[in-house]
Amino acid sequence: MSSVSIRDVRRDYGSFVAVDGISLTVESGEFVTLLGPSGCGKTTTLRMIAGLEKNTGGTIRIGETLVSDASANLFLAPERRKLGMVFQSYAIWPHMSVFDNVAYPLRIRRRSGGEIDDRVRQALRMVEMEAFADRPAPALSGGQQQRVAIARALVFEPEVLLLDEPLSNLDARLRTQMGDEFRQLQQRLGITTIYVTHDQSEAMALSDRIVVMKSGNILQIGAPESIYHRPLSREVATFFGDPNLIEADVRDCRQLSADVFALDVEGPGWSGECRAAVAVSSGSKVTIVVRPESLRVGDAAGEGPALEWTGTVSQSIFRGSHRSIVIDTPGHSLNAETSSLANPSIGNQVTVSAPAAAVWALAAG
Predict the structure, then answer these.
(1) Are the C-beta atoms of residues 282 and 235 closer than 8 Å to each other?
(2) Among 33, 124, 171, 174, which lies 20 to 30 A Cα-Cα from 276?
(3) Could you tell me the CA-to-CA distances from 210 to 194, 203, 204 in Å, in that order?
(4) Do residues 12 and 18 lie in contact, with contact meaning Cβ atoms separated by under 8 Å?
(5) Which of 143, 154, 8 is nearest to 71 (CA)?
(6) Alpha-carbon span 17 to 268, nearest angstrom
(7) How far apart are CA 352 and CA 299, in angstroms?
(8) CA atoms within 13 A on the CB side of 83
(9) How far is C-alpha 300 from the chain's CA centre?
(10) Same fold for the domain at 4-237 and the one at 244-363?
(11) Domain spans of the chain?
(12) CA–CA separation, 155 vs 26, rounded Å?
């Protein structure tokens, strides 16, 4: 499989800049997700890689092949880029059977009848749709159509697979199931994959790395765990869930490893320890990021340094799998998630704590 490299890639529509000079390398066999809200440039980036749109600046390489160079006016047509693509709509042709839908990329490449039959059967077997080969496409469920679209994208053995919101038309349960199945298939085949979605949970569950985008720019690139627990900015932090953002003063800073520092911080009526990516001088202000699921209500945070608050329960909402709690403390309210079996009474005073390793500090502002 091939890597994908884009350098200083830009896409302008007149005075509007859809993608603003971004750079990214996707390694061979890697699963990378472009994540962001509508209009952030993620689909435009995918379409430029596919050759469905021309980049107005920068270069794009697939493996060793330079497929687009805006400055040299070089542009390789989509059919010559050895890419498979799955669209949000699946683009399944209703007048064709499942077999004929999957066979289409091979037929336009003038492959022999025997090769077409072998490859289509193999592709359908990979997505567990071989038994449906003769079924008319309109008779398929949404999940089955998605599998057929993936089989069609894989049948001619592309070097890279591109997917644009392929699960968004499915219901929540099927979306999770199909996402898990696709990830297993991608890992088994080892195919380089670039995936576009606005769904944060989907991106975290599927990806080796996530590229968070906004307004045509890249905000952060990293493993799902790193981006979720160690955001580089408030924008990235708040894009994932609804974290508590609390202003604090730094009392002390010490280095724990090459890229992690321990900060002693304090605020109105509370103090404790958290983590940061850079050294912060004493007396500086920071914003600490505390995710609701990291907070423990009424329990100690466990062994090791922690942050701790005392406050009054002002809200308790049962959500089935968990309970959402709001605790009013001096200076701010904390959102916490706890077991659905817990039910602290409104008005009760409680202690809320979080281990230092689960609290991340950002530069204030």
Answers:
(1) no
(2) 33
(3) 10, 7, 8
(4) yes
(5) 8
(6) 44
(7) 7
(8) 28
(9) 32
(10) no
(11) 4-237, 244-363
(12) 22
Phi, psi at 192, each rounded to 5°? -65, 130
- Sheet containing strand 160-164, edge to edge, reads 83-86, 160-164, 192-197, 31-35, 209-214, 217-222
Residue bearing tokens 């708040």: 238
Residue with tokens 């591109």: 162
Separation between Cα atoms, residue 192 and residue 181, nearest integer Å: 16
The CA distance from 324 to 343, in Å, is 10
What is the CATH code for 4-237? 3.40.50.300
The type of residue at 203 is A
Residue 31 CA to residue 187 CA, distance in Å, equals 9
Domain 244-363 has CATH 2.60.40.4070: no
Between the alpha carbon of residue 108 and those of residues 101, 120, 148, 186, the distances in Å are 12, 14, 18, 25
Contact indicator for 158, 121 with CB cutoff of 8 Å: no
CA 170 to chain centre: 18
User: Helices 142-154 and 113-126: crossing angle, nearest 10°?
Assistant: 130
Is the model's pTM score more than 0.70?
Answer: yes
- Picking from 313, 298, 312, the residue whose alpha carbon sits closest to that of residue 352 is 298
Give dist(CA 349, CA 340) in Å, integer.
19
